[in-house]
Amino acid sequence: MAETTLGTGVESAAERVSALFARIHDTLAGWRGSILAATGGTSAPAELDDRVGALVLPELKEEDPLLVGAGFIAAPEFAGGSELHFSWWLGPLEDNPLLGATTEPSRLDLAARSYSDYLRDFGSLEWYRVPQSTHRTHITGPYVDHLCACDYIVTVTSPVERDGAMIGVVGVDVYVKRLERELLPAMLGAGRPVALVNESGRVMVSTDPVVVVGSVLPPSASAVQCPGTPFRLVETRVGS
User: Fold this and answer.
1) By three-state DSSP, how is residue 132 classified?
2) What is the pLDDT of residue 7?
3) CA dihedral 154, 213, 22, 150 (to 10 degrees)
4) Whose CA is closest to 170, among 198, 132, 141, 113?
């Protein structure tokens, strides 16, 4: 269905969405280069972890971090067969049923997660499978993260490739409620109720109190694409 122009306010909000995710994409591009340099020879897992930690921890230690998680997940072939190797760090977490509240970044410890067995087949998960098949950065979500955050998040992952083969993905997690703080001011300036939705119509951020995060909106011609992302801003009360 063709999209219509909803006015400069909505277009400005769409530009804000694009700028935010362009910033994330640029961060991942820089990390990809550093990880490739670190894995140019035969790198021990500990050396790789040190390099990844040096990249992501400054972002997670910011006074008001955008990211709630970040790191590198090695391809099984690169990690050594079926072994899982997650060089992944969590930022300070709000109180949740799994981890409580934390004030400093921490390394994700899969050994302490008895419910993480589903990650043994992580190659089938969207945040890994799509970058592997498309060779491009991919945005997954919004979805509820049951591994760490216990809340709605968006995951952005980018393939790290050498000689045409993917050695893993570098990525970040962002709380949806953190994105709301970044995007709601521009969306409220649209002059009408709008929702930010993904390709499936699932709502990520909304200025309409009756349209909640995680709900799905039907296709609408009253929408503006956010360039460089899979997201659209959709008018939620067309004709009202």
Assistant:
1) helix
2) 67
3) -20
4) 132
- In b/e form, how buried is each residue of 94-109, taking b as 16+ CB within 10 angstroms? eeeeeeeeeeebeebe
| pLDDT band of 36, cuts 50, 70, 90 | confident
- What does pTM read for this prediction? 0.88
**Above 50 in pLDDT, residue 21?**
yes
Q: Cα angle at 28 between 212 and 114, to 5 degrees?
A: 65
* Tokens linked to 176: 């949806």
Q: Do residues 152 and 143 lie in contact, with contact meaning Cβ atoms separated by under 8 Å?
A: yes
Q: Tell me phi and psi for residue 235, to 5 degrees.
A: -70, 130
CA distances to 121, 143, 177 from 91, in Å: 25, 18, 15
pLDDT value for 219:
82
Q: How far apart are CA 186 and CA 208, in angstroms?
A: 14
d(CA 191, CA 187): 8
Place of tokens 């300036």: 189
Rounded Cα gap, residues 207 and 210, in angstroms? 9
The token pair that represents 20 in the structure block:
């935010």
For 134-193, list the strands marked E by DSSP: 138-144, 152-162, 165-175
Q: Which domains does the chain have, with CATH numbers?
A: 42-175 (3.30.450.20)
Say which DSSP state 214 is in.
Answer: T
- Token couple for 153: 């998040």
CA angle, 112 as apex, 107 and 113 as ends, to 5°?
100
